[in-house]
UniProtKB/TrEMBL annotation:
This is Hydrogenase-4 component B / Formate hydrogenlyase subunit 3. Belongs to the CPA3 antiporters (TC 2.A.63) subunit D family. Its main location: membrane. GO terms for molecular function: NADH dehydrogenase (ubiquinone) activity. Coiled coil: none annotated. It comes from Methylophaga nitratireducenticrescens. One of its GO terms (biological process) is ATP synthesis coupled electron transport. It comes from the Bacteria. One of its GO terms (cellular component) is plasma membrane.
Length: 473
């Protein structure tokens, strides 16, 4: 457990130091992120050796104390968060187009990292509220780093985030009034099917769905992600929207009585299918590249919602593995796609998809990275996206009664193939391409390739990942 705490504390301590140290901030953040990654890997190895671990801060026992828990799922998420922050910090420090070196990006990115790590480790409804607030405030502040064009999307994001926080907090208050405890393990033993519990769970679910931008509460996401600096867009899409999904999973699998979870699961699965189709349709129609990638996030969150819904409705633990494989595969692919989109936009001087015409000739590495990441988003074998989708499809295809869900997944896959190939096909059109007015930043292009390749390499370690996550299934 000590390694997990180090992974969480290192970014927080460094963020405080950066308030006084302004030189070499980028190098300091890269070193901190790599140290946090090493600590997270050690924590993951501890879970592999010794199983689930728990700790109460300051020695105070629940319900007064704060309990942290380290499981296979959140140890993997700790590693994933530190890895994404390391990649994005490298991009922000060394890309000519990152536009974050002279801003407050560095302490905010570290605060975001630490808040996420605390969220993964917490096991208490109120602690989650605190971490969600820290996460939301840091994320909104980072969106504004783009300047005046981002103020309106950031305000929109902030207002909806506040509404979500009020909804979640009201649900927490109802749970505390009904049971007198907020610790997840204690609530698991006492929750009952009654009107107060149902109301509290629905309020918390609505708040979390708004914060995660799950359809139809996604309205803040496309403009916020598209107008943020490229490094911020990558962080928001890859890791920030996954925090509320994690809490949603634990609330409905640990706190809610099984009969309630089973009934809500069907509706969550329907929401997931709608997100797949609507997000994909909007990504196909938009003329702007970063908006396309942002709507792709809305669609891909549909897979997570669908998988969670079916997990609750069918009570099949195998779907838990599919859920977190989706989260990791999508996060890696989305880091790559946002870095490529930002580089293309800055180099070509246009934010439109049509500017990609001839990009395979002018910026082949970046365009190849986009195509590789897009292949995982579509679910082409043997990518991480394919492994996640196949794990989801197995219980669906096992019974003809479940096949209608497969049709929804097929429509979502078709939509993602259309918006990815729309960009790729344009890039091969070498008739009258838009020529860049200076040489592309090749280091950034190769850096964008790295997470895309990792998304595909997930397939080579999928058996180990499934066995590791199976420790809670």
């Amino acid at each position: 457990m000590s390694f997990a705490l180090q992974s969480m504390a290192l970014p927080l301590i460094t963020a405080l130091l950066l308030l006084f140290i302004h030189r070499r901030a980028g190098s300091i953040v890269i070193i901190t992120s790599l140290l946090s990654l090493a600590a997270a890997l050690a924590a993951m190895y501890q879970v592999h050796l010794y199983g689930v671990q728990q700790m109460t801060l300051g020695g105070w026992q629940t319900p007064l104390g704060i309990r942290f828990q380290l499981t296979p799922v959140n140890s993997l998420l700790l590693v994933f968060t530190a890895l994404v922050h390391s990649l994005v910090a490298l991009y922000a420090a060394y890309s000519r187009h990152s536009a974050t070196n002279t801003t407050d990006f560095w302490p905010l990115a570290l605060l975001l990292h630490s808040s996420l790590a605390a969220l993964w480790l917490s096991s208490d409804l109120f602690n989650w509220y605190v971490t969600l607030e820290l996460l939301g405030l840091a994320a909104v502040a980072m969106v504004t780093l783009s300047g005046p064009k981002a103020y309106r999307p950031a305000l929109h994001y902030l207002l909806l985030s506040l509404v979500a926080s009020l909804s979640y907090l009201l649900g927490v208050a109802l749970m505390y009034g009904r049971y007198g405890v907020l610790d997840i393990a204690l609530l698991t033993e006492v929750t009952q099917v009654d009107a107060t519990t149902q109301t509290a769970l629905i309020l918390m679910t609505l708040g979390l769905m708004i914060k995660a931008a799950v359809w139809p509460f996604h309205l803040w996401l496309p403009s916020a992600h598209a107008n943020a600096p490229t490094a911020v867009s990558a962080l928001l899409s890859a890791v920030v929207v996954k925090g509320p999904i994690y809490i949603l999973w634990l609330i409905w699998t640990e706190v809610a009585p099984p009969e309630l979870a089973q009934s809500i699961g069907f509706y969550l699965a329907l929401v997931g299918i709608a997100a797949l189709i609507w997000g994909g349709w909007c990504a196909i129609r938009t003329p702007y590249l970063k908006v396309l990638v942002a709507y792709s996030t809305v669609a891909q969150l549909g897979y997570a919602t669908l998988t969670l819904g079916l997990l609750l409705h069918w009570q099949q633990k195998q779907l838990l593995i599919a859920l977190w494989l989706f989260v990791i595969a999508h996060g890696l692919a989305k880091v790559s796609m946002f870095l490529v989109a930002g580089e293309m936009q800055a180099t070509l001087g246009s934010n439109r998809v049509t500017a990609l015409k001839g990009a395979t000739q002018t910026m082949p590495v970046a365009m190849f990275a986009f195509a590789v990441a897009g292949g995982s988003i579509i679910g082409l074998p043997p990518s991480g996206g394919f492994v996640a989708k196949w794990t989801l499809l197995q219980p669906i295809l096992a019974s003809p009664l479940h096949w209608p869900w497969a049709i929804g997944i097929l429509l979502g896959t078709f939509a993602s193939a259309v918006y990815v190939f729309r960009a790729v096909v344009l890039s091969f059109n070498r008739a009258d391409p838009i020529a860049p007015d200076f040489s592309p930043d090749r280091f950034s292009h190769w850096l964008a390739m790295l997470p895309a390749l990792m998304a595909w390499l997930m397939a080579s370690v999928s058996a180990q990942l499934i066995r590791f996550l199976g420790g809670v299934a």
